[in-house]
Amino acid sequence: MPEPEIRELRYFRAVAEELNITRAAERLGIAQPPLSRAVRQLERRLGVALFDRGGPRLALTRAGTTLAEEAAVVLDALDAAVRRTRRAGLPRDVLVVTAKPGIATELLREVGGRARAEPDAPELRVVVSGFGEQADLVRTGRADAAIAGCFHGHGLDTEPLATEPRVAALAEGHALAGRDVLQAADLAAEPAPRWGGSPVLDRAFWLGHPDRPTDGPVVRDTAQLLEVVALGQAVALVPASLAVRNVRPDVVYRPVRDAAPYRTLALWPAGSRSPGIAWFVRTARDVAAALTAGSTREGARWAG
Predict the structure, then answer these.
(1) Which single residue of 70, 90, 105, 212 has CA 20 to 30 Å from 22?
(2) Distance (Å, rounded) from C-alpha 47 to C-alpha 37?
(3) Domain boundaries along the sequence of the chain
């Protein structure tokens, strides 16, 4: 039979991610019967079962899991190609860049200032994004480049920009708050906040003790994170720059001697030859070096 159509792959992806025909149909804005027929048609084209329909809920087969991974690459690449092609048709070189609030957006502000001062620099359009969203925005072409922390997955090149310690954020009255320096093992029994939507690899990094995770409340931004810490619902490992920017009487920060550091990276599509992206990465590296040199003393405070 003919090869799968892009429409069928999009339908399959929605069902594979939702594992529920009703929710997938609502997400796609179509009725359930044509969605079910499209998935069955795709299975006939490929000659394999993509879903196990015999259990209490829909589940991917081994073949379905493989297609879900491969289809994501294809669909993301297609979406990115369409969006970047449209931007390439603009009269001026426009670069969409993204970062989450914090040290990353501080870097973007400085890079944007340099772009406005250089006649040959691209026009930067900044998108402020949430935790863990930067890599997907670049992969799908909604952004051309990003400044981000840890990420997982495929299709991106990276350039290290800055490294800083991570510190424990604790409620003001927490038993560990009386210690000057902590070890990661000290946090092993503490509930840790769960970043909404973050993959397993990222959760392991943020927990600091992936072998013995004790999950706390789900959070989606820094404000939520610090509130659950202040209420004693969780202990969080956070970048030292976050501690510097968020001094408050009900939260204390303590160095964690053996916690893996937080790294800030520039991300862009793998193999890109865009002069605008090359300018952005080069400038972000220069700006980060200048900012790091100016904050060395503050960072040493958290070295433990």
Answers:
(1) 70
(2) 15
(3) 6-83, 93-162+262-299, 166-255
